[in-house]
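Issue 218. Parser rejects a valid record. Input:
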Amino acid sequence: MSNDAPARERLSFKTWLLIAVAAAAGIALMSVLYNAATGAFNAAQKPEVTTVENTVTVSEGCMSSMHTAAGVQELDNDTELLATLSSCSTTDEWVQALKANPGAGALTSYSTADAEEFLSMACVKAPETPVCVDAAAAGRLS
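Output the parser choked on:
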């Protein structure tokens, strides 16, 4: 009988390990199924919204200023970037100019949300500029 005891203990451990792995897999599967079901349910309740940006006319001065900020080869283009906040008139104009000249910032391309986040950081240094005043009035600064 003493020869069977170690085999039973190993079998018991293997069984426990198998149960633990199965339980973890079951929990993971239930989580995936729950998220899929609730996501489908929420999607069914909420209509899909497609945002179409309005056409924004960017002035020559705004575009030129943003282009200059994008052309700075040094890592520090704060002076040129802050100048864009006065060269552009509105938040939408500034965002469109940045999207056309992403080199003015740190990214290679900007979504509207990315551009507005970048604008929020820039407006900390120049809150009185036309673009920052417009963005603050519209509630677009974070």
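Fixed in the parser; the record now loads. Residues 7-18, 40-52 have pLDDT under 50 and may be disordered.
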